[in-house]
Design a protein that fits this description.
eight-stranded antiparallel beta barrel, two-stranded antiparallel ribbon, elongated
């Protein structure tokens, strides 16, 4: 994690002279439903590499996570002030006790703090595919997350944290014929490096 922070700080120093520009509202100055069908809507796609740690309530108490994040201006709802950024995340965890793949949607309401800084908050929901105790199960996951975003030209850096919840899941260990019932609640804290198209 320390290496990732050092690399991000070095990258910031190299690109600090670039023009900073956050994302723009999908339909300027209006609150509307389905902006994707409005004239002037631009999705402003972006892609991010994700890395960090996930603290689990059960199984591996802490494990590294990595993945990919694709984002765009929300096609379903736009606001007159600030905007909603729709994030689609694919996150993998390879712990000793638990291996999981999570696919999530995370719409965030973004507040533009300055010309190059943003604060975001919003719900998350998706599906987690987990393997533990020689058994594989999937479950619906939901939660709440927040982020701080810094823009440097077409590159942006994000620090994000979100808490996710699931129902209890019965995992069966076929080797010793024992069933363990646990949830997969977790707190994920990550850093992202993204590029705007």
């Amino acid at each position: 994690m320390k290496r990732v922070i050092v690399i991000m700080l070095l990258a910031l120093s190299f690109v600090s002279n670039a023009q900073n520009q956050p994302f723009e509202q999908s339909v300027k100055g209006k609150t509307c439903l389905l902006p994707v069908f409005k004239k002037g809507y631009r999705p402003q796609f972006a892609i991010s590499l994700v890395g960090g740690f996930q603290n689990n309530q059960n199984f591996d108490k802490s494990a590294a996570v990595y993945g990919l994040d694709i984002s765009l201006q929300c096609p379903l709802l736009c606001t007159a002030k600030n905007y909603i950024r729709q994030q689609i995340s694919i996150i993998e965890q390879n712990g000793k006790e638990l291996k999981s793949l999570t696919v999530e949607l995370n719409p965030q309401y973004r507040l533009i703090a300055k010309s190059d800084w943003e604060l975001g908050i919003g719900p998350s929901f998706g599906e987690i595919f987990a393997h533990t105790n020689n058994d594989t199960k999937n479950a619906f996951t939901y939660g709440l997350g927040g982020s701080i975003v810094y823009h440097v030209g077409k590159i942006f850096f994000t620090a994000e944290s979100r808490y996710g919840l699931t129902n209890r899941i019965n995992f069966t260990n076929n080797v010793i014929n024992v069933t363990v019932s646990n949830n997969l609640n977790n707190l994920r804290s990550v850093l992202k490096v993204g590029y705007k198209f």
